[in-house]
Amino acid sequence: MKIRKMRWAVLSSGSLGFIAVAALLFVMYRAVPRHRYCLVLDEQFEGDTLNPDIWKHEIQVGGFGNGEFEMTTASTNNSFLSDGKLYIVPTLTSDIYGLDAITDGFVLNLTAAGTCTGSTQLDCVAFSNSTRGNLSVIPTISSARITTRLSKSIRFGRVEFKARLPVGDWIWPAIWMMPTDSVYGDWPASGEIDIVESRGNAVTERTDDFGNTFTSTLHWGPTLALDKFLLTTKIRRLYRNGFNQSPHVFGLDWSPKGIFTWHKTRAVQNFMIEFKRSFWSLGNLKAATLANGTVFDDPWSKHGNAAPFDQDFYLILNVAVGGTNGYFPDAAGKPWNNGAEASRVGWIVRLPTWPTDPKARGMEVEYIKMWRIAEPGEVCQS
Fold it and tell me: What average pLDDT does the chain have?
């Protein structure tokens, strides 16, 4: 009799557990916002080359404001299609120009070549000089950065992609969005949406924030010094394998009421924010001043709580390496200092953790899709 009672107790508790899990999944399902969507982009990366009507390469040498160590190119060494997948791969610049050119007596002038997509001399021209007191190198790494800025953008909608992140120390992959027009002013006043960012370093501890994690972040604020991204960022962690060991599905849902990123399914949300109050209020920016006494006005005051995330944003896919903006914090084993102007000098030999197979080293993207929320009464084409 006692055994029979115990059996029924176990069955009963198991049933209750199943019901509780089912109820939780139902609540999560009901909590996911529902809209009607119109397809904007369905990129399966078929064929031999990127579609130039959709994707444009950004070709620059200046580090994109982050002190990144790579130059970005349109070379098929750094971005290519293979077996229905996109690969963005970092390589050594010395493989093209030679090691001597990296360190002394070489000028890399993208303006003269007519290829630079930047707007300043720093973006377009680099030179190497080994003279003490004037030490400089051309970017020691080459990689790629592609965008839909001139073709595809959304203002509220959804993004979904399947990707495997790259392997190798100090590699910095990102799939993210920037405003098509800087309506509210220069970065970060007009916002930035980072769907997935990660670090390619090998994981040695469960608490590492490397290939076992990805981060979603919103950047916003009246000026660089007042970027309040720490209030709108979230890390997702895996305790087995990593995001650079096999492909994963990631996504973003964005509406006038809020933004959330997700992993695997929309019910498994990572970062989420509801637009219940203005970003000026969220950042407590009413008393925003700099050390020099500069006071800033609210650039979003005449708009709703979603501002600056109420404008058209386009997609960016890139693989950076290194940088001096702090994304790779100074720590033991890091071969450069974020405060050193000559940090790029140390990046001359191939890093031992980088796979020799470019596909393994690079970011692999199987597909990327983008939808916009349909207007009231609009019927979207199938």
Answer: 88
Residue 352 backbone phi and psi in degrees, to 5: -65, -20
- Considering the entire predicted model, what is its pTM? 0.89
Helix, strand or coil for residue 99? helix
The encoded tokens of residue 151 equal 């073709």
Which one, of 176, 182, 250, lies nearest residue 217 by Cα?
176
Give me the pLDDT at residue 128, please: 92
With contact defined as beta carbons under 8 Å apart, do 335 and 351 qualify? no
The two three-digit tokens of residue 38, written as one number: 């119109």
Question: How many whole angstroms separate alpha carbon 268 and alpha carbon 253?
Answer: 12
Measuring CA to CA, which residue among 53, 259, 248 is closest to residue 146?
Answer: 53
Angle at the Cα of 175 from the Cα atoms of 379 and 335, rounded to 5 degrees: 175
Q: At residue 326, what is the residue type?
A: G
Bridge-based pairing of strands 70-72 and 141-143 is parallel
Kindly give, in sequence order, each residue whose CB lies less than 8 Å from that of residue 88, ignoring residues fewer than 6 positions away.
78, 79, 143, 144, 145, 146, 166, 173, 317, 318, 319, 362, 363, 365
299-312 mean pLDDT: 96
Distance between CA 295 and CA 226 in Å, rounded?
11
Residue 257 has φ and ψ, to the nearest 5°, of: -100, -15
For residue 268, pLDDT over 60 is answered with: yes
Structure confidence by residue, pLDDT tens digits, 205-249: 777 888 889 999 999 999 999 999 999 999 999 888 889 999 999
**Quick one: DSSP state of residue 128?**
-
Tens of pLDDT, residues 288-297: 666 677 788 8
**Which residue is it, tokens 């940090």?**
343
Taking CA 344 as the corner, what is the angle to CA 341 and CA 347, rounded to the nearest 5 degrees? 155
Cα–Cα distance between 157 and 36 in angstroms, integer? Answer: 9
CA–CA dist 272, 344 (Å, integer)? 36
Tell me the per-residue pLDDT of 135-175, one tens digit each, with 9 for 90 and over.
Answer: 788 999 999 999 999 999 999 999 999 999 999 999 999 99
Strands 85-88 and 192-197, sheet pairing: unpaired
pLDDT of residue 343 exceeding 70 = no
